[in-house]
Amino acid sequence: MKYLEQMITIFENFHEAVYIVDRQRKILYFNPEASIISGFSKGETQGFFCYDNILNHVDSFGKNLCLSGCPLVEAIGQNKVMDHMVYLHRKLGHRIKVHVRAIPYVEDGEVVGAIEVFTDETQKNLMQQEISIKNRLLLIDRMTGLFNKSFLMDELSEIINKQKAREYGVLFLDIDNFKDINDKFGHLFGDDVLTAIAKTIKSNIAFKDIAIRFGGEELVVFIYNPTKESLLETAEFLRVMISQSRPRLQKYKFELSVSIGATLMRKKEKHMDAIHRADLAMYTAKSEGKNKVVFVE
């Protein structure tokens, strides 16, 4: 799944039990609420298959749904949301009644897995939870795989507060001469360039760092608990890696670079204020010849 890391960030603080599987029902992610309800930790679930005697759902007749009638199998096979009332086998040995809603997860028109939410709430609330899940998936920019500006405005503050970082660093990146690339080679190629840069960023930041498509060719990265020195090292490393990133199957020759503004969030500062400061630093980098990192306090 291309957007698994982004989904993990979103569902880590979700109030309902959620887990994500691939087409073979291998558990890719198990959120904290799922651990609370089931009694199984992430280490006991992630990387295993859901039919490996973990949740071990049965219906009211005792039929083992993992072997026949699994909501996840139906959701994946039919590309359809499936609702079931099942009895989950908790780690301590007893059964509890839960509502299960299995939601097929589609990427590029193909079902690549499913998201299951389970709760002891009413079926009506499950429908509300499905809407909530789908709304949260809309926080991912589908072209680049980064989070989008809606995530920045609606979700980021809560995540930062829950992570209890001492502070965050903020990088504001803007692709140099991106309009020229679009004008000369076409917008579709420009999209490919932007996607290659986004993937380079995603592949070279830490798990708790957060990368966001701010708008157009502007990208923002929140770096978890850096020092000034480590923030600048990360910014410079990303600048170099991006300069060497471009679509491979193309005949165009052009220079690729980014200008980066960097700053450390101040204590109790709103993240948009830090972004604005990093944005101004990025414009300073542009005015000083582009393809460089500028830090501001």
Report what the structure shows:
The protein has 297 residues and is of the alpha+beta class. It folds into two domains: 4-137, 2-Layer Sandwich (Beta-Lactamase), CATH 3.30.450; 149-295, Alpha-Beta Plaits (2-Layer Sandwich), CATH 3.30.70. The chain is 37% helix and 24% strand. It has ten helices and ten strands. The chain has helices spanning 4-11, 32-38, 71-78, 123-137, 149-154, 156-163, 178-185, 187-203, 228-243, 271-287; strands at 17-22, 27-30, 82-89, 95-107, 110-119, 168-175, 210-215, 218-224, 258-264, 293-295. The strands form two sheets. A five-stranded antiparallel beta sheet has the order 2-1-5-4-3, sandwiched between helices. A five-stranded mixed beta sheet has the order 7-8-6-9-10. A hairpin with a 2-residue loop joins β7 and β8 (218-224). α7 crosses α8 (187-203). The longest helix has 17 residues, at 187-203. The relative contact order is 0.11.
SSE diagram, text form:
Elements: H1 4-11, E1 17-22, E2 27-30, H2 32-38, H3 71-78, E3 82-89, E4 95-107, E5 110-119, H4 123-137, H5 149-154, H6 156-163, E6 168-175, H7 178-185, H8 187-203, E7 210-215, E8 218-224, H9 228-243, E9 258-264, H10 271-287, E10 293-295
